[in-house]
Design goal:
- This protein folds into 2 domains: about 130 residues, Rossmann fold (3-Layer(aba) Sandwich); about 150 residues, 2-Layer Sandwich (Alpha-Beta Plaits), CATH 3.30.70.
- Strands 2-1-3-4-5 form a 5-stranded parallel β-sheet, with helices on both faces. Strands 7-8-6-11-12 form a 5-stranded mixed β-sheet, with helices on both faces.
- Helix content is about 45%, strand content about 20%.
- With about 300 residues, the chain is of the alpha/beta class.
- Magnesium ion (MG) binds next to loops.
């Protein structure tokens, strides 16, 4: 795991580095507060060892800046303090540091504290991942999808371009569960997810939106591209045979697609794709329908 050591003293950096040499860490050093913040932004370390006394920016100020940055606030910080002052230790911990080590470092203690902080970071990363992933299909879950869609929308506002969204729903899925049982239904969902993923680019965001409902966010796509992708997925799903519960199960899916053109919010985009999906359902299912063009505001 990557560890960033921020200390204005070259000697202290060398000592800390030597003490941690056998810990199998990827160590990056920065010789001051400003440089440390820039390095943290660039390197995204798993742990930061932060000197308290630095001429350009105190360790407290660096810690404050780290904790105020959404992208960096989850990185654990261990203060390296020359003073044994309780007030300093308390202030550091209150600012969000997980621990402190007093200089001169005891090698065994430093290593143990670093290992403990990295263990916690690893668990925290796992939790963050599980909170975003649908356990059955391993696609993004709805919450992660909505968050990523907001980010893509913000990018769109800033840089322009297009963004499309595909919404898919398995047809008569309840009948699959009723006929073959829920384990078979789960297998159908997993196979459908795999088909969606197989048709997506790296930059696309496939998610399980609800029970048998899927959404794919398609950055830089227009509705026409999304419809082409949806049609490829629709055909793959239609021709696939899901092996489960000793049976060969055949399902189809309906698709609605929409793009961001003329819309003002990410919620509008979801609504437009959902309405298109409703059209696909009422047009007999197993088909792809685009959203109707937004009605221009009366002038
Ligand atoms: Mg110093």
């Amino acid at each position: 795991m990557k560890t960033l050591i921020i200390d204005d003293s070259p000697d202290a950096l060398a000592v800390a580095k030597a003490r941690l040499a056998k810990e199998n860490l990827d160590i990056v050093c920065a010789a001051g507060g400003q440089e440390g913040l820039a390095t943290a932004r660039r390197e995204r370390p798993d742990l930061i060892l932060l000197d308290l006394d630095m001429p350009d920016m105190s360790g407290f100020d660096v810690c404050r800046a780290l904790k105020a940055d959404a992208a960096l606030c989850m990185i654990p910080v261990i203060f390296l303090t020359g003073s044994g002052s309780t007030a300093d230790k308390v202030k550091g911990l209150d600012l969000g540091a997980v621990d402190y080590v007093t200089k001169p470092f005891d090698a065994v203690e430093l290593k143990a504290r670093v290992r403990a902080a990295l263990r916690t970071k690893h668990l925290q990363d796992l939790l963050a991942k599980y909170a975003q992933v649908d356990p059955l299909t391993e696609l993004w879950n709805r919450r992660a999808l909505e968050e990523r869609l907001r980010q893509e929308w913000a990018r769109l506002q800033r840089y322009g371009g297009a963004l499309a969204l595909l919404m898919a729903d398995l047809d008569h899925f309840k009948a699959v569960n009723d006929t073959y049982g829920h384990p078979a239904g789960d297998q159908v969902l997993r196979d459908t997810a795999a088909i969606l993923v197989s048709q997506c680019r790296e930059s696309d965001l496939p998610a399980r939106y609800g029970g048998e409902e899927f959404v794919v966010v398609l950055p830089t796509h227009c509705a026409q591209d999304a419809a082409a992708l949806a049609e490829r997925c629709r055909r793959k799903i239609e021709t696939a045979r899901v092996q489960a519960s000793g049976a060969e199960i055949h399902v189809t899916a309906s698709f609605g697609v929409a793009d961001s053109i003329g819309l003002s919010t990410p919620e509008d985009l979801i609504r437009a794709a959902d309405e298109a999906l409703y059209l696909a359902k009422s047009d007999g299912r197993n088909c792809v329908r685009p959203a109707s063009a937004p009605v221009p505001a009366a002038s």
